[in-house]
Amino acid sequence: MEGICMRLSELEAVVESLLFISGEAVSLTAIAQTIEMDKATAKAIIHTLADKYENESRGIRIVEINGAYQMCTAAECFEYIRNMYKSPNRQGLTQALLETLAIVAYKQPITRAQIEEIRGVSAEHAVSKLVEKKLVCEVGRMESPGKPIMFGTTNEFLRYFGFKNIAELPELEEASKMEEDESNSIKE
Amino acid sequence: MEGICMRLSELEAVVESLLFISGEAVSLTAIAQTIEMDKATAKAIIHTLADKYENESRGIRIVEINGAYQMCTAAECFEYIRNMYKSPNRQGLTQALLETLAIVAYKQPITRAQIEEIRGVSAEHAVSKLVEKKLVCEVGRMESPGKPIMFGTTNEFLRYFGFKNIAELPELEEASKMEEDESNSIKE
Amino acid sequence: MEKITIRLDAFEGPLDLLYHLIEKNEIDIYDIPMARLTDQYLEYLDAAEDRDMDDMSEFLVMAATLLEIKSKLLLPKPKNEEEEGPDPREELVLKLLEYKKIKEVTEEWRQREEDAALVLYKEADQAVKQLKGKESQTLEDFLQGLSMEDLYLAFRQVMHRKETKVDHVRSSFKTVPRDLFTVQEKMEYIRDMLILQPKTTFLSIFRKNSGKMEKVVTFLALLELIKRKEVQIVQKMTFGEITISRYDGRDLHEII
User: Which chain A residues contact residue C110 at CB under 8 A?
Assistant: First the structure.
């Protein structure tokens, strides 16, 4: 019994060092392989560690991004870090970029023409800006004349807003129901 | 009293986040300034944190380098990290590769089937690995059904061993003689 | 109408402007008074200061759409149809609803954006870049000091095995195994370790469960690194812990 406990806490240390040293999110698969454990065990170890950080109000945290894990600083320490690096506040996205990004996030994969259809304005600038910021990327081509490029969101997008994955996006207001109500009311 | 304790552990978290995000050694002066404490207090906080890592056998450590502090991985975890980042193709020469290379060197030109005949196991992986490493290459086709590819050693191979050409390799007769000697010695 | 100054670039586009008008006038989106909305929309366009044609075109297209819907509503309905045809406003309403949903969710996202900005991610450590950077392997690295004699021995061994049909696995125990550990390889190991831990202890360079041979080779590698002035070792007192760090260009007497 003690042997197993020892082993688990050793593996926890290994996971900690892996997440610490990596500058990007490390996939559960890679972690499991490295510690030579199945994914469920690896996941349990990561979560134990993450909970520990949280409960002890440590200066570091572990976040999940699309089935991968990344170590980051605790939000409470932000002011101090900013003071040390004298870094300016992050500029938020403009409304145009934010709207375009939201459309891509909810409707992906989506073409530029489809985005323009929803926003009612050209999306050329916004899409290329979002691609440049690595919040959006090409995910394929549509099987239609001209084979237009389809866009989707990136992991950087998830990180930027603190989402775990696309499924976690806040739901849009019930669209179908409202549309029904609406068509009824129009027909009345 | 409790207030001070709270404050101290908060600062400990800040120091932790600072050392984590920096990725390099941070001077005691910079840390003290950032947490708005005198150097002695800052040092005490850093050491408390460092001791905690050590005592709890964590995956991360804090080392002092010329009056600056750096967060790094624990030595115990090194093997795992190295394994994760060193891709398997960095592996050195395995026994299978060594034997296959030796056979090609002394029996060239030789087909894969002939190598397999000698070693008694499939040579597919070994041959393609050696071709990839540019130690072995195709040198022609055998005039027999199926015209199998024949392999030989490369100029890189000769260059590595400091030979000008294949003729300089130790003679085959000598080889078979030595084999006899060897089998004698084993029988003894 | 009161005199107002309007900048079209304050709006994200025609839909945004329409949305603004609807909110401002508390119009029921499901029953839009087309005449009123169209008039107001056109007034905004008239009053706009920044009437750059490029920016205007999208607004003008919408104006045309609004006028079209308005005129369709004015047309008398065909007599023989008892049921009403589709409401000419329907498409516009659907678009506005769709736009509204996006607009509303972005408000929530603003907060998330701010909160998430407080969390910082480290860029890939220099250490990891160095570890990864050494990916491409030279032939020398790959062959790990293999000599012609090694190759010859391997050949002899394999030919012998074939003739005597000795079991492949067991026979390899009989022969002298090529050193699994080379000084070169171990030097690389220690270098890698010092990338991750700029300062480490003497004991930690030896792998857990390493055999005598591996320990000796590791030690030789360390001596070689010291000789090449790649690392420095410090022992503060007799029998004290020995620390190993990368050579920083200072000679030993300067440190002590």
Answer: 92, 98
Query: How many C-beta neighbours within 10 Å does residue A119 have?
Result: 26
Cis geometry, peptide bond prior to residue A109 (ω within 30 degrees of 0): yes
What pTM, to 2 d.p., does this model score? 0.65
Give the ipTM.
0.69
Q: pLDDT grade, residue A138 (50/70/90)?
A: very high
Chain C nearest-CA residue for B170: C152
Domain residues of chain C, as ranges?
Answer: 8-75+85-117, 137-255
| Set of chain A residues whose Cβ sits within 8 Å of the Cβ of B10 | 57, 76
Could you tell me which CATH class the domain B2-77 is placed in? Answer: mainly alpha
Give the angle subtended at the CA of C119 by the CAs of C117 and C125, to the nearest 5°: 120
Q: Alpha carbon B61 to chain centroid distance? A: 23
pLDDT per position as a tens digit, C68-123: 998 888 877 666 655 667 788 888 999 999 999 998 899 889 998 988 888 888 77
Residue A148 half-sphere exposure toward CB, CA atoms < 13 A: 11
**Is the pLDDT at A5 greater than 70, yes or no?**
no
Q: Is B67 helix (H, G, I), strand (E, B) or coil?
A: coil
Pick the CATH number of B95-183 from 3.40.50.11240, 1.10.10.10, 3.40.630.30, 1.10.730.10: 1.10.10.10
Low-confidence ranges of chain C (pLDDT < 50): 1, 170-178, 256
| Cross-chain residue pair C148–B161, CB shorter than 8 Å | yes
CATH annotation of C137-255: 1.10.10.580
Contact (CB<8Å) A74/B13 = yes
Nearest CA-CA distance, residue C125 and chain A, Å: 6
Residues of chain B with CATH 1.10.10.10: 2-77, 95-183
